[in-house]
Amino acid sequence: MLMILFHFLFKPLVIFFVLLMLVKVTGKKSLSQITYFDYISGITIGAIAGAASIDKHTDLIKGIIVLMIWIFIPMIMSYIEYRSFSFERKTVGEPLFLIKNGVVATYNLKKAKYSINDLLMQLRKKDVFDLTEVEFAILEVDGTVSVLKKAPYSKVTPQDLNINPPYKGLTLSLIINGIIVDSNLHLAEKDKAWLEEEIKKNNITNIEDVLYAGYTSVGKLELVTKNTSNTAT
Asked: Which residue spans traverse the membrane (predicted)?
């Protein structure tokens, strides 16, 4: 019985927490930033973790050691890449121009294994439905495509119109799904009594009825209840 608990409960829990700690050490990275090397490492680490969790013939300590090796390899690679730009270009790659000065770079399309349909699809994801509107399209090393439109098709900004829009800072979430976020309430230099009083001004008696409450940089309390929404000053 103890052996069964060890193999099917204790080992998976140990591997999970070891992975959690090791991943925290590597730092945060969004899925869009993951390179091919990170992807391969992730698959390998997952396979090792799975084997170390359920395989009776895999020693737990040896499994953890191998996991640590595969976690620290990408960290070492990242450090070397940070110190050496040439090494980074060889291991991670470099951006490719798919469109340059309004002209499709067919050689780079072939190099990136991109068809014209692939390019058009990526442009549509950037809200570009006409190839002739693009000045530059760059395939980044993480697989995303960055797009710069030609000047006549670029969006007009307030600066282009000599307009100075009012400052809009960060909105602090004070209540989420009926629960007060104490840390943000402290950042806003407010207390629970003030928050309850402001909510009462909007005919809300119970904090649990508030789906969201945000405190803006100009001192407004934005309230969204579970049935209706309104804004309080």
From this structure: 6-23, 35-54, 60-80
